[in-house]
Amino acid sequence: MSNSVGVRLDGLRRQFGGVHALDGLDLDMAPGELVALLGPSGCGKTTALRILAGLEDADSGRIMVGDKDVANVPANRRDMGMVFQAYSLFPHLTAVENVEFGLRLRRQNAATRRQRARDMLELVGIGAHADRYPQQMSGGQQQRVALARALAFQPQVLLLDEPLSALDAKVRVQLREEIRRIQLEVGTTTLFVTHDQEEALAIADRVGVMRAGRLEQIGSPEDIYRSPATPFVAEFVGLSNRLPGRVTGDVVEVLDTKLPLVDAATVHNGAVTALVRPESVDVTADPAGTGRVVAVSFLGPTARVTAALPDETIVVAQLASARLPDLPPGTAVRVILRPVPVVVTAA
Amino acid sequence: MAGLRKRRARRQRVLRWIVVTVLAVLFVLPLFAMLEFTTRGPGDSLSWETWRVFFDWPALGEAYPILWTGMKASFWLVLLSVALTLVLLVPTVVWVRLRLPRIRRLVEFISLLPLTVPAIVLVVGLAPVYAWVVYFVGGSSWTLMFAYTILALPFAYRAIDAGLSAIDVRTLSEAARSLGSSWATVMWRVVLPNIRSAVLSAAFLTVALVLGEFTIASLLNRDNIQVAINQLGKSSAQMSVAVSLAALVLAFVLLFLLSFAGRRRHRERKTS
To answer: What is the pTM of this model?
Structure first.
């Protein structure tokens, strides 16, 4: 089923007015890979995807799909399926007719394309609604049909532009897992753009974190989370405590604990701010402890405990929620840091 | 409480019927008077002679050559003006929305200009332009379609723009592009089917405008149905009123068909 190819973006630049939406973006995608571009609003991730789709033009740079530069190929000849953030099903066509649309343009005969469209709707789990119009379906169902439509003509590349952001939380989680299952099944090279870090970390083979039109870091979800290359990545992906520390050699001393550095080579000795994940922090009730619990929030299986230190520093710890009864607000606690590598930034 | 609600509902129903009745009398009475006038025979008897001639087209052409010429000219003018208006306007409005959203207000303003210029003033400007039109394409009455397309602009633009506002034309056309559609296919298979009732409204408004236009045709010395009715009024008042009535009824029928078509499609989609 798959006819996947590699994709390479080389030095893409795009300026809107005086703003650099893309400032020399380089990205390599292996055949069949799912890469998520993650970043705050205005970082250029959607522009990158739209340029790859042919819906925007780059000012300069190369767009290689397989071994072909498609920079001058119009959108309708790029052979890329796309799912949009806004609902994009054609309102005058039923679900199955929507899925058939791309096949009809490719002049497949009626019986073949109807069968293929129904198979695709089954694949996205919505076969029973094949004859419904978009306005008779929920948002989640519409996005499933849009996914089926984007994949029906076996595109070389699948582009997903925040397809889940208009859906409610539960459907979003369900559908992102479905997208991953289907992507693995069809093996299409996929670029997924999102501002939701959880979504990116959950389904991508690799996550690229973007900032100001460039890739700040690209790597496996685990790498991005555990070994952020820059303070921006550390702060954007997951929560981080900003704690004062002092670098000596290849360690940083934070709250009297020596922690290894993620990238010791680029850090100079002296005062810094260390970015420490809440799950690397532990608090235990201790009448002799210097910290004091100021707030707790229950998150289901886990909980977040916020403690204040005598110098007004605030530390957030993530714990198993079973430990909450011992830590009501006001409890004196001892704050312990686990010795996992941390990123530091100038104090 | 329930009694109060019932009384209020009854009062509203009565009020509704009074409004509908008054409006119906206001609209129907002149039409009825026109019908009565066209069916007056000698000595105040009832006669359908005028209508018999009206529907006997060969006889009509022979008895009232001016009318026949005017009707034919208006028929072609309706078709050509609607075609030209839609062909020019639909792609332009879509293109402005997709590619040039910044100039949307300007285009809207320009499209409203013909409303602000009285027809008589427009003719002063159009006369020299039509000297060139005559030079290039001749002096036939169908050339009025250029002027009528400009006159129809405010109405047709508004109708089409309102239709496009109801759909996310940018996302739909980008989706169609990514699926492999050329711009022509995007327009024909995606945009047009979704703004069909807006296009029908624009077409209908253009038809109504063309059928009712007199000033420009008369001052540019062209034939159309209104010019013919005016001329006929001097020699055969009954026939001129019959033609006016028929034109009005035709406009009503078109309006009815339009709303009926829109409603039926809506219902089909809801129930399927």
So the answer is: 0.81
